[in-house]
Amino acid sequence: MVKEKTHYVCSDCGGSSPKWLGKCPSCGAWNTLIESLPESTTPAKNRFASLAKTAEIATLGEIDAVDMARTPTGHEELDRVLGGGMVEGGVVLIGGDPGIGKSTLLLQALDSLQRSGQNTLYVTGEESGAQVALRSRRLGLNNSQVKVLAEIQLERILATLDATQPDIAVIDSIQTVYSDQLTSAPGSVAQVRECAAHLTRYAKASGRSDGAARGRATCIVLVGHVTKDGALAGPRVLEHMVDTVLYFEGDTHSSFRLVRAIKNRFGAVNEIGVFAMTEKGLKGVSNPSAIFLSQHAEPVPGSCVMVTLEGTRPMLVEIQALVDSSGPSPRRLSVGLDKDRLAMLLAVLHRHAGVACMDQDVFVNAVGGVRISEPAADLAVLLAITSSLRGKPLPKGFIAFGEIGLAGEVRPAPRGQERLREAAKLGFSVAVVPKANAPKKPIEGLTIHAVERVEQALEVVRSLA
Ligand code: TYD
Ligand code: MG
């Protein structure tokens, strides 16, 4: 194949240069030039080129708003994050740490889809066909009809997709795929971006009947690796290109896995699916509210349970804190919670409640490898810290939630009633919540203390002990 001439484009300003340079000649930024194909030749003389000719303008009113056809994957928790199922012509990016279960989940999903009559294709670039087969046996998927292609060259993958026209194709992983057109190594930013762009374009164009009549569009699922700092390897542009971005979360040492929708053009974001890794692969957990609690027989200092609301479901999560006297430079460490927020909370605690941790190491952790991004965790973090500092446990059956402001105020969390009802359902009996979240009607079995300020929350806790 004749190689297209590539050039180098600055990822900051978009300026280009015919050869690689350390410094962008247009904007002067360092290390931003990335190899790319000239735009005009990117669709590579195939049928995508005809897209331009078919483009026509219509008013919004004229366009039929057809609801996307969704195919349920047969895994309720996965469908939940996808917004109901795989969408025809949609592109899903699924990221996560190595070994967290991406390949396992997708193989299981493909198998159920194939059994429900879909034409599926699993493109594996990381494992051999035999390894995939071995995994499928382990998962108990006997006589699976899922088609497997062990291939990493983009052009051949596209040709196979075109020939077999699957309804759903999984590319595991996008980092292993490379295009002949670029000289960069597989997994490099340029390759990942280019390959993902081609596959996305394929998915979008696959349903169009350009000349030869075509049936359904292909839904493509890209598996992406996550770098050390938690972002999907490759450029962020990958996230912009695709329709849905799902992240696998969880601790590889615990059996629970969360799949979170970060972006979804076809459904709600921040929805989560909960799975448990078992001997036979991933199993959906339909009632996850109590799995992120460690079962202490008696209350222990430094532990506070909060109710977090992820997507549509409230979940109880235990926040743990350990405050310990430190050397000259005290450490602040958080796992599953925002580190900057921890520093802010410590400052609020000192300034407004007179509790100082300046000479202490402070560690906080959300149990079970779950990541909590909502500020409603603030109050629970703060109470866990003070509990650890004083060495006094919070009362039995205690929960708290609420955002804390820099002025020391406790702000309401969205949908507080639902959170409180979930806690009551699981047998919690005492709650400290923001004033605006206090329910008008009492909730059976739950004593609610509504607070407006941090000092007040600490006072309530002291009076309960
Ligand atoms: P895998 O899907 O290969 O992860 P990824 O594709 O995200 O890198 O998951 C592999 C891990 O899951 C591995 O540590 C073994 C474990 N596992 C099970 O516990 N049960 C199973 O049935 C399977 C297939 C894997
Ligand atoms: Mg894998």
CATH class of the largest domain: Alpha Beta
In this entry the ligands are: thymidine-5'-diphosphate, magnesium ion
Structural class by helix and strand composition: alpha/beta
Can you name the CATH architecture of the largest domain? 3-Layer(aba) Sandwich
**Main β sheet profile:** 9 strands, mixed
In short:
This protein has 11 helices and 23 strands. With 465 residues, it is α/β, with parallel strands linked by helices.
Model description:
By secondary structure, this protein is α/β, with parallel strands linked by helices. It folds into three domains: 41 residues; 214 residues, Rossmann fold, CATH 3.40.50.300; 175 residues, Ribosomal Protein S5, domain 2. The chain is built from eleven helices and 23 strands. Strand 13 and strand 14 form a beta hairpin. It binds thymidine-5'-diphosphate and magnesium ion. The site of magnesium ion has 4 residues, from helix 3.
Can you tag this structure with a few keywords?
binds magnesium ion, Ribosomal Protein S5, domain 2, Rossmann fold, binds thymidine-5'-diphosphate, single chain, 23 strands, alpha/beta, 9-stranded mixed β-sheet, 465 residues, 4-stranded mixed β-sheet
Topology overview:
Layout: E1 7-10, E2 16-17, E3 33-36, H1 51-54, E4 70-71, H2 76-82, E5 86-87, E6 91-96, H3 102-115, E7 120-124, H4 129-138, E8 147-150, H5 154-164, E9 168-172, H6 189-206, E10 219-225, H7 237-241, E11 244-249, E12 256-264, E13 272-278, E14 281-284, E15 303-310, E16 313-325, E17 332-335, H8 339-353, E18 360-366, H9 378-390, E19 398-400, E20 403-404, E21 410-411, H10 416-425, E22 430-434, E23 447-451, H11 454-464
Parallel strand pairs: 6-10, 6-11, 7-8, 7-9, 9-10, 17-18, 19-22, 22-23
Antiparallel strand pairs: 1-2, 1-3, 4-5, 11-12, 12-13, 13-14, 15-16, 16-18, 20-21
